[in-house]
Write a structure and sequence with these properties.
CATH architecture: Orthogonal Bundle
Oligomer: single chain
Low-confidence stretches: none
Strand order of the largest sheet: 1-3-2
CATH class: Mainly Alpha
Helix content: 55-70%
Structural class: mainly alpha
Number of domains: 1
Largest sheet: 3 strands, antiparallel
């Protein structure tokens, strides 16, 4: 960023806009809400976990399937799935001797769709 563009992005006078601050403060919500959102974003910030989530957006899969797709060990996939479950991003269902994983809900699907769509935009 050049010195000129840095000047264009800065306010020339220090002025608080109470109404705008009030609206933004309400949008922040409580600390617990932001904590949970941060936990989810941290979970997304890992390549293996993101690969798992994108794969699960297509279909439900077991650990063996996910290990093939992510090219990591089943043990590593299990560890990542535990983190994703703790972050409320995936859920599981045991059928017989196989546990299948899927996205927790449509909110996660929409988050991934928006993230990937935005990543495809030219910047």
């Amino acid at each position: 960023m050049s010195a000129i563009s840095a000047e264009l992005e800065a306010c020339e006078v220090r002025q608080i806009h109470p109404e705008a601050v009030q609206v933004a403060r309400a949008a922040l919500g409580g600390a617990l809400r932001l904590e949970r959102a941060l936990l989810m974003l941290k979970a997304l910030a890992d390549e293996t976990r993101l690969r798992i989530l994108v794969s699960l957006a297509a279909t439900e899969l077991c650990v063996c399937d996910l290990a093939v797709l992510t090219e990591v060990s089943e043990s590593a996939v299990s560890h990542q799935l535990r983190s994703l479950k703790d972050s409320s991003l995936v859920s599981s269902d045991k059928r017989g001797r196989v546990v299948y994983y899927r996205l927790a809900d449509d909110h996660v699907r929409l988050l991934l769709e928006n993230l990937l769509s935005h990543a495809n935009e030219p910047h």
